[in-house]
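Summary for the steering committee. The consortium agreed at its last meeting that each partner would contribute one worked example illustrating the joint modelling workflow. Our contribution is presented below. We chose a case with several input lines so that the handling of multiple components could be demonstrated. No manual editing was applied between input and output; the record is shown as generated.
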Amino acid sequence: MYGLIGRIKAVPGQREALSTILMEGASSMPGCLSYVVALDPADPDALWVTEVWDSEASHKASLALPVVKDAITRGKPLIAAFDQYIQTVPVGGHGLRATI
Amino acid sequence: MYGLIGRIKAVPGQREALSTILMEGASSMPGCLSYVVALDPADPDALWVTEVWDSEASHKASLALPVVKDAITRGKPLIAAFDQYIQTVPVGGHGLRATI
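What follows is the complete predicted structure of the assembly.
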C-alpha cells in the first residue's frame, strides 16, 4: 500500500470551499482505500488530508481522472501552500475500503 | 468527528511487533470509523497512526476496552516516544467505516 499525509494551508477564508472540492472525487478513484479530509482545529486556514492507496501507481493514475483534474483546477486558486507532505507505507487497520 | 494523526517511534527493532499489536483491536472499537497503521519509509523505527472517530468520547471510551487495555500493556514496552500527536476535525471523505 501507499499512503500520504498532507497539511494544506488554504487561502484565508477558503478552507471550507477547498475541503468540499477535495472530497468530491474521493469515492470514485480506483485503488483509493481511504481519503479523509480534516480541519486543523489549531489553524483556521489549515487542512489535513490522509490517503491510502493500493499502490503508488494508482495514486499517480488518479491525477489523470477527469474528476480529479477538475478538482485540481478549481482547488488550486484556494491553496496557499502545502506545508507538510509525508509518504507512508500503510500496513493495515480498519476502514480501508476498496473503490467500486 | 474527531481525528488523530500520530507518529510513534518504536524501540529499535520492534516496529513490526508494535504495528501488529496496534492493529489487533482496530476493527472492534465502537465509534471508530478509521484506524490505519503505516510505516515511515524515512525512519526504520517510526510508525504513523491515523484515526477517525465519531466523537472524542468514543476515542476516550476505547481506552477502557479490554482489547485496547491489553494492547496498551503489550505495546508500551515497545514504544520509545510519541513524537507527533495532532488532533483534527475530520469532515468527510472515503473509507470512513462504522464499526459493527
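Residues 15-24 of chain A form the longest helix (10 residues). Chain A touches chain B through 35 residues (CB under 8 Å).
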